[in-house]
Design goal:
Layout: H1 11-26, H2 31-46, H3 60-78, H4 105-114, H5 125-132
Helix pairs in contact: 1-2, 4-5
């Protein structure tokens, strides 16, 4: 499908885009901008044109998890960290490690509770590491 080709969209998606476009034009947005915003909205809501085959569309829960993971990785990259730094793929990767920085915030909270660290509920991960060190 070439860019701008709407043939892969369902009739319902086309109607939705047209309705959104009309809404934007009524608010004074230019025709080109209104069309671009309308299709962007349809794409965001439905994931693009029709998908063929069974099981190709993700559930809302899976989409939400993917967005959350993507946001976490983007934030880590923005702050100069490797997206998976300090985060093992599963708890088995952390079992043998005693380093505080390898622990999750929840694990640090449990350890802080055991040591009765004052003010732990308001602490961030870095603060918990300092308090436990």
């Amino acid at each position: 499908m070439s860019r701008g080709d709407k043939s892969a969209y369902s009739d319902k998606q086309k109607r939705k885009a047209e309705h959104i476009e009309e809404s934007y034009e009524a608010k004074g947005v230019s025709k080109d901008e209104a069309e671009a915003r309308a299709w962007a909205t349809v794409n965001k809501q439905s994931g693009g044109g029709n998908k063929s085959g069974s099981g190709t569309q993700k559930s809302e829960t899976a989409k939400r998890a993917d967005r959350k993971d993507s946001a976490r990785r983007a934030s880590a990259t923005k702050h100069g960290h490797s997206p998976n730094a300090g985060r093992a793929s599963s708890s088995r990767g952390r079992r043998g490690s005693t380093s505080l920085s390898d622990m999750t915030r929840d694990e640090l909270m449990k350890k802080a509770a055991e040591q009765d660290v004052h003010g732990r509920s308001r602490m961030r991960k870095d603060d918990l590491i300092k308090a436990l060190s």
